[in-house]
Amino acid sequence: MQYVNAFWVGGLICAIAQVLIDKTKLTPARILVLFVVTGTVLGGLGLYDPLVRFAGAGASIPIVGFGNVLAQGVIKGVQEHGILGILTGGAEAAAGGITASIVFGFLAALIFKPKVKS
Predict the structure, then answer these.
(1) 66-85: per-residue pLDDT in tens?
(2) Where do the structural domains in the chain lie, given as residue ranges?
(3) Interatomic CA distance for residues 28 and 39, integer angstroms
(4) Which InterPro entries is this protein grouped with (predicted)?
């Protein structure tokens, strides 16, 4: 059942993004920021963790989950380091995912020949 819940929750998040792209004048970049901010606010209020426990990767992998990771990192950083944790907590919590994306992006650039869009 975990796979089914992950599938439909992740699909619902993606469907909401697609509806926003199709039915509004929001650019993909603004939708991305909206989703990250939504995840951060919901994570900061403690409302996103129950969804992650229910849907697993369906809620933690989309970009909304990245906002949640930032919020949880800041909360933990403030608890451990005080006011300085506001600046360091989010970066510390998301460092693994950010590093992986940089490394895999670099490896893909080495393997594949980039083409200019025309």
Answers:
(1) 999 999 999 999 999 999 99
(2) 2-111
(3) 16
(4) Spore_V_AE, SpoVA
